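User: quick one
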Amino acid sequence: MSNASEAPTPDDGLRLMESADTGPVLAADGTPLKRSLGRALRRQKLRALMLIAPLLLFVLLTFIAPIADMLFRSVENQIVSDTLPRTVVALKDWDSTSGELPSEQIYEAAYYDIFIAAERKLHTRLGSRLNYELTGASSLFRKSGRGLDDIGEVYQDQFEDLNKAWKDGETWAQVMGSDAWLSEANSWGKSSGKLAPALELRDGIAELLPKTAESYSSFANFVRVDDGDNPASEDPWSLVYAALWQDLTSGADVSAYSGPNADLLQEAASAAQDFESISFTDGFAEIDEDWVDTPIWQTIKTYSPKYTSGYFLNSVDMKKTPDGPALRDEDQRIYGLLFKRTMFMSLVITISCIMLGYPVAWILANLPARTANLLMILVLLPFWTSLLVRTSAWKVMLQQQGVINDVLVWLGLVGDGDRLVMINNQFGTIVAMTHILLPFMILPLYSVMQTIPQTYLRAAKSLGATNWTAFWRVYFPQSVPGIGAGSILVFILAIGYYITPEIVGGTTGTFISNRIAYHISSSLNWGLAAALGAILLAVVLILYWAYDKIVGIDNVKLG
Amino acid sequence: MVALTPISRKPISFVAPVMAAAGAFFGIFIGTANGSTLLGFLIGGALLAVIAVAIMKMDLPEKPVRWGLIVAFAVLGFSLGGIPGAVVGAAFGWFTGWFAYWLFEGRYRAKVAPYLTSGQVLWHFAFRVICGAIFIFLITPILVVMPLSFNAEDFFTFTPEMLRFDPDGYSLKHYRDFFTSDAWQQSLWNSVTIAPMATILSVGFGTLAAIGLSQPHVPFRRAIMAILISPMIVPLIISAAGMYFFYSRIGLQGTYLGVVLAHAALGIPFVIITVTATLVGFDNSLTRAAANMGADPVTTFFRVQMPLILPGVISGGLFAFITSFDEVVVVLFVGSASQKTLPWQMFIGLREQISPTILAVATILVVISVCLLTVVEMLRRRSERLRGMSPG
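Assistant: Done. Structure below.
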């Protein structure tokens, strides 16, 4: 006992501080205690973060990045401006609401863009992209890919008639390419395994024949990269002939040119004025009448920005028009109906789960532990059984030739001829999903009800409450957190279900998720699928947030 | 359970009408099945009322009467509906005997509080009947699948032969199908190779992170937790869509690795939840004590912490395993034909309705889930016992 007063006690430090306020309290190693503690805390935080970091990184890469990618895709629309760069620029000044056709320049830009896209086989992709917005665009673009050759061939034939040399790829290469490039290209062989040398334009040719130079460059680049051939020996596209004709007739002074084949060029320049010509507008009109109508141009202009709200408008049954967003026609509205149906059916499923889950949770919480544990197996077994097993079970039960109908017929409650239709409709989906999601309602309800003492009910009754009052005024309010937790969980799960509605839902019992899957795998309209998914995700996240507020994500219990 | 209330015999004026009502109720079904609802109603009611009166008036001994009723109703059932009728009849006979004495002796009162009014007693039992019906709703679909998987025909329903318990009505042919068909075996093999890899990934990363999350000072704990749990909350179709887009960008779409990574991400929340739940009861002074005695952090982890949280880790792993093993939506999009898993194959079979081989597979899967459920339950009890909590 005598030692006790000399032994150090926890409050020694405090006393020391009071007696001698000479400075901060020091830790054992002499640093101020505050700093020492701060360092320890920092190290602890760092260690915790180091343990979490690998998983966080893993989830960010394998899960969050895909979700972000999906959100990005729901607004991304680069395909139009990437495929039709000149047209998009030219269309900027066109007033799409005026009802006038685009000018000849726009047709010219479109001719260059679509021709090049068709050579690179990108025009069909653009066509199917625009087809989501304007039916018929897909076939229009496919047709144009073939048809645009006709415009250039008018000039190609005349140049070739003028002089056979124009037929030859080398003639073109000599006129367009620099001497250094020509010699490099001529010594290149396909066997070298490398790409042919990149085109280097002859000095001054880009100023002299701007359109020809540009289109020849596109051609050379395509031959070099996409085909892996030598541009110097390939015959150019008919597009290049059209460009040359344009350059020559728009007053290019070819007398200044002194490179190879200058005589050819001068001959062509003097003859070009008399060439038979065709306007681009007429060329497009020949391919398809739709090109000389405003809708396709309006659509291209509307969807020319790199990012678009079009997919989102689409998923709420609206569309972009030149006058801004507008509702779709009555008969084209499907997503509003689908969202409403998804919400409604999820709600019905949630309510049925409450109705069925509440009594079960109650009896599990109030039976003796041994019996309750036994009965719990009946809840946990479906919970652990494969979703596909349960869905197939319901398919077996609900079919017209299924077990339930057979029993009803055997009992004589239903005639053999008029068996009940319980599958491939909303009823089938609701029954099967209620069964599948019921454990998710029972388990949280059960864990809440376990904490409500039975004595409260007896106390209420002994104070004169009827059965109903005791339940409604005493027991039920305490079980509300369980109902809340279970309902949100069931609703979140129900709203995004795919497999069960797909198998037992038919056409009237499907959810928005089935539509998303359809757009990903069948119609290939990924942007719309992403937009629908983003809306669904937003709904779920709001509910998740509510769940976190009510229950806390830490308190999710399993099994 | 001990009796709460002393019981006494009930008067005939109570037992006979109740019995008659029960008889009339069942009589309706039998009557309808045999052509006349009204006749069934009347005969059923009268029959059970007569039985009740006879038992009570003559004070017959319980055991022989109950056996007699089972036999009598079985014979009656056989004459009406063959072997299935006999089975239903025997069950009904057992019920009648039990019900008659239960009412007559007043046994129904024994286990309820003595102060309850008769209305409350009625509600007490009605409530149990309702709960029983819900339990039947929960379990029937799973039970129905099992016998149907032994069907000798390619039907999704019970054939007359099966109902007659004719051995010809049963066969193992769907199981044979499953074990000999290349498509099914390939998909089984795919499932068996994908699920364990995904489980190892999620358990490995998940356990570490759960330990990190249970430290006392973790910055942004809620935000991190929200991100880690999100694969469980985000609808599968959205995860599947996102992964499909993103994985095809980086070349993982249609590869084994892609499916494993996707499934690992889906399993992680389950590992996090179960392991953090186990760590709530973990005494941190144990690790300090170990460090005090000279153990380095790795030794402490494997020798002290790991054995204690192992049940949580295992059940988290089982959850992750079953998630991957049952998963179909994500693999449908992220995988290609060479990653076709068992649920995928089932999904195809269900959508295109090929054959009842699905039911055989379903039965096998149910058996597997029963095994997993047993393991998880045992682990849960063990962990609760270790932490000094009462089971259940």
